[in-house]
Amino acid sequence: DTGVSQDPRHKITKRGQNVTFRCDPISEHNRLYWYRQTLGQGPEFLTYFQNEAQLEKSRLLSDRFSAERPKGSFSTLEIQRTEQGDSAMYLCASSVGQIYGYTFGSGTRLTVV
Amino acid sequence: KQEVTQIPAALSVPEGENLVLNCSFTDSAIYNLQWFRQDPGKGLTSLLLIQSSQREQTSGRLNASLDKSSGRSTLYIAASQPGDSATYLCAVSLGVDYKLSFGAGTTVTVRA
Fold it and tell me: Which residues contact A99 (CB under 8 A, 6 or more apart)?
């Protein structure tokens, strides 16, 4: 499979717990993005990496959120002390260059109870 | 701040009808525009990518046009089928800022 892979597909967690999501981009794509999508809305930008460098973080990304991309390969998104408002679909996308557009993964659906 | 609007929010048509989905954006200095399809509970599938220098792109039954000066794009789906039922999202990318700004989508139902 040469697409963008995300794991897990679904995560149900209790409020206050920490969760971590993983994204494996297309191997030759040096740019990796995280977006969050709530029901009935379009995805909203969270952060992006060029290789291992995190170049921008949205104001949506509170201090409870952290993202890493060690060695410029896969990326993880961690949410600490989850809140019910964190319930959403978390989407990862990768790109080899803006002119080629983006490829999205299937997303991780987070439900905080 | 780039605002992207998609009208209508929902659309229901009988099978065989042509679909016309609209997308408007406030900042015309876009780098490119991409149309995506999203099935319920799933990720996004890229349909068409239009560079700012292009006026349209076609793939099979799909055709997307871009008018940068008026801040509009239209996605046409010819001879709709029940399998076309999904949410269609448009997204624009600005200049060196590689972030995508998305509309809220148009949810399409094609009735058999």
Answer: B32, B51
